[in-house]
Design brief:
This is Anaerobic nitric oxide reductase flavorubredoxin. By secondary structure, the protein is α/β, with parallel strands linked by helices. The chain has 2 domains: about 5-245, Metallo-beta-lactamase, Chain A; about 255-395, Flavodoxin domain (Rossmann fold). The chain contains 12 helices and 23 strands. The strands form 6 sheets. The chain has a 7-stranded mixed sheet, with no helix packed on it. Mean pLDDT is about 95; it is low at about 400-405. It binds flavin mononucleotide.
Length: about 400
């Protein structure tokens, strides 16, 4: 996709990545892709704000060359050191050795550690400004959104906030780079939530701090490093980020994530009854077979919904491994404050619940109900399952004030 003018003298010079299967080596993007948004300010001085992953080197330099000769770049602004934004730095340094790298105090050592670059690195302080001619860039430290060295860059005349990972999403750009040109905002909002739950959620307290810190700045356009540029309605993505960051402190919106795993269909049979019971209440419901659906997608649901139902059989005296894995990732990502219920089949002595309770203690999720059964579910157990789902969903919908009953 060729460079796109955002405002006079300011261009998007990003690249789409359709070949990386796992973002950060972990999160699937085979279907969705991702963009590495980079920006060129072509004033008396020329500045590039954030770069791209090294595999996109050819395309990236072609994009710069559409606007300026890459050797004439004066400033390279690194908001964040993660290699999806800095991977082409060594090449750019070779092409434009005179260009000054501007970065946060914490990023200086990291530039040396990641790329062996020490000269022409200039640290900027919180609030510091750099005049490029008509346009002025101002820097704001936003630590841990997403790494400790992260900062954001604000162009004062056009009021554009180059926010790096904050307000970003998975999803390659499909021709439209602006929110007002995009015919499928829902796709990017969904991918923004998945991106948030996978990558940013752990730092929700710092996200809220950053939003609060920047609230006094008159922002017209949010230009993140991944996904759409929000120029018509930046408040949409700001409000979503605020809401998602708050979910680190509260259970989330009323609704249920139903996770299940099954070897021979016994637990799955009960899952259908449980889902039937839930659906009678009108509660929102997302169902995931945890052995087949990647945790990346499950985390988005877990992060945003207040209730979780776990259906899994006993496996070698413990919880079924793929369920234990999902919950382990939820522990690492700090998914907390949920109400939870468990059901599952066992063959002779059970044991899944024992291990689950250890994980729930780490998650600080509150167990509301359990339903364990031996072998296949009888008609009676299926009826109990339906009731179990209905009762739990009603509790979730009513704000989850009911006491523990399992
Ligand atoms: C590899 C394997 C290990 C199992 N380990 C246990 C166990 O330790 N304790 C137990 O009570 N049942 C155990 N079972 C039996 C299952 O829990 C039982 O078959 C259950 O009905 C399976 O539910 P599903 O059809 O939903 O997978 C095991 C089954 C398999 C295949």
């Amino acid at each position: 996709m060729p460079a796109v003018e955002i405002r006079n003298k300011i261009h998007w010079i990003g690249v789409n990545d359709h070949t990386t299967d796992l973002f950060e080596g972990l999160w699937p993007i085979t279907q969705e892709g991702v963009s590495y948004n980079s920006y060129l300010v072509n004033d008396q001085k020329k500045a590039i704000i954030d770069l791209a992953k090294s595999i996109k080197v050819d395309e990236f330099f072609k994009r710069i060359a559409e606007i300026v000769n890459p050797s004439q770049v004066d400033y390279i602004i690194l908001n964040h050191m993660e290699p999806d934004h800095t991977g082409v730095l060594r090449v750019l340094r070779k092409i434009a050795p005179q260009a000054k790298i501007l970065c946060s105090p914490k990023a200086k050592d990291m530039i040396q550690a990641f790329y062996g670059i020490t000269d022409q690195v200039q640290v900027v302080q919180d609030g510091e400004e750099v005049q490029l001619g008509e346009l002025t860039l101002q820097f704001f430290m936003t630590p841990f959104v997403h790494w400790p060295e992260t900062m954001m860059t604000f162009e004062k005349i056009n009021r554009i906030l180059f926010s790096c990972d904050a307000f970003g999403s998975y999803g390659a750009l499909r021709g439209a780079i602006f929110d007002d040109e995009c015919t499928d905002l829902e796709f990017y909002q969904k991918q923004a939530l998945r991106y948030y739950a996978n990558i940013v959620a752990k730092f929700s307290a710092q996200v809220l701090k950053a939003i609060e810190k920047l609230s006094g700045i008159p922002v017209d356009i949010i230009a993140p490093s991944h996904g759409l540029i929000w120029r018509k309605n930046p408040s949409i993505i700001i409000d979503l980020y605020k809401k998602w960051a708050e979910y680190a402190k509260i259970p989330g919106e009323p609704g249920i994530t139903l996770l299940y795993a099954t070897m021979y269909g016994n637990t799955e049979a009960l899952m259908d009854s449980v889902a039937q019971g839930i659906s009678q209440t009108g509660s929102s419901l997302e169902i995931f077979d945890v052995s087949r659906i990647h945790t990346s997608y499950i985390l988005a649901s877990l992060w945003s919904k207040s209730g979780v139902i776990i259906g899994a059989p006993t496996y070698e005296n413990e919880l079924f491994p793929s369920m234990a894995h999902v919950l382990d990732i939820a522990i690492r990502k700090g998914v907390q404050h949920k109400k939870v219920a468990y059901f599952g089949s066992y063959g002779w002595a059970g044991g899944a619940l024992r291990e689950l309770e250890k994980q729930l203690a780490l998650l600080k999720w509150q167990m509301a109900d359990t339903l364990v059964f031996q072998g296949g579910p009888s008609q009676e157990v299926l009826a109990q399952g339906k009731e179990f789902g209905r009762k739990f969903a009603e509790m979730v919908l009513s704000g989850m004030n009911s006491e523990k009953n399992g």
